[in-house]
Amino acid sequence: MNRETVVTEALDLLDEVGLETVSTRRLATRLGVEQPSLYYHFRTKKDLLTAMAKAALAPHAAAPLPSPEDDWREWFLENARSFRRTLLERRDGARLHAGTTPTSDLDRIRHKMAFLVASGVPEKDAQMAMLAVGRYTVGCVLEEQADPGPGEDLPADVPVLDHEAAFEAGLALILDGLAQRTGRRGQVTRRG
Predict the structure, then answer these.
(1) DSSP secondary structure, 49-88, as one string
(2) Which part of the chain is CATH 1.10.10.60?
(3) Distance between CA atoms of 96 and 104, rounded to whole angstroms?
(4) Per-residue pLDDT, 127
(5) Which SUPFAM superfamilies does this entry report, sorted A to Z (predicted)?
(6) What angle do CA 73, 98, 104 make, to 5 degrees?
(7) Count of CB atoms within 10 A of residue 62's CB?
(8) Candidates 3.40.640.10, 3.30.1330.60, 2.60.40.10, 1.10.10.60; correct CATH number of 1-43?
(9) 126: region left, alpha or beta (phi > 0 left; psi from -120 to 50 alpha)
(10) pLDDT value, residue 136
(11) What's the CA gap between 89 and 56, in Å, rounded?
């Protein structure tokens, strides 16, 4: 048993039972070990959850970084969409991620920020836009993952929410505001 195996099994357990039910006791049973042996790899449950969150975000962290010839608006949209897709890949993915600090991803974040600034986005606006879109994405996914689905009894005049379309609409508003602040309002690609 190694650290990677523990994290992989913990993520599989998360997908099966949800974040509320993940425990070191259940994980130890799943791995066929005594609970104290997990502390060899992770001193606390918080350490384990942090490692799980990092591993769960690996697909987004592996996405190509922007290059100078990329359109910053298109990249900004795709970066948020990639983050959303990655959070949705795991049960309670947004809850697992919420509150984590991306210390292992700082070089990638710096590259993204430098790309936005080089593209003409004022540095402070780039920082706030990245923070805002990240929190917006986590919030949208939290709501989507908490949605009980169409079986819920709603009044006839309340439309069923299309989570992807709602996400795209809000994302476009964030981008439009950022583009307006940069004075480079351009054609925005929307999905949905």
Answers:
(1) HHHHHHHHTHHHHTSPPP-TTS-HHHHHHHHHHHHHHHHH
(2) 1-43
(3) 16
(4) 95
(5) Homeodomain-like (SSF46689), Tetracyclin repressor-like, C-terminal domain (SSF48498)
(6) 75
(7) 10
(8) 1.10.10.60
(9) alpha
(10) 98
(11) 8
DSSP string of 87-133, one letter each residue: HHTSTTHHHHHTT---GGGHHHHHHHHHHHHHTT--HHHHHHHHHHH
Look up tokens 């970066």; give the residue. 79
Which residues make up the CATH 1.10.357.10 domain(s) of the chain? 57-189
- CA–CA separation, 82 vs 60, rounded Å? 6
**53 within 8 A of 5, measured Cβ to Cβ:** no
For the chain, 192 residues long, the average pLDDT of each consecutive 10-residue run is 94 96 94 91 92 95 94 97 97 93 82 96 95 96 87 72 95 95 56 48
Distances (CA, A) of 155 to 7, 162, 165: 43, 16, 21
Distance of CA 99 to the CA centre of its chain: 11
The pLDDT value given to residue 102? 67
Which residue in 139, 132, 126 sits closest to 174, CA to CA?
132
Q: Look at residue 190 in the predicted model and tell me its pLDDT.
A: 46
Q: Which residue has the tokens 């592996």?
A: 62
Tell me the C-alpha distance between 48 and 54, whole Å.
10
How many Cβ atoms are within 10 Å of 26's Cβ, its own excluded? 15
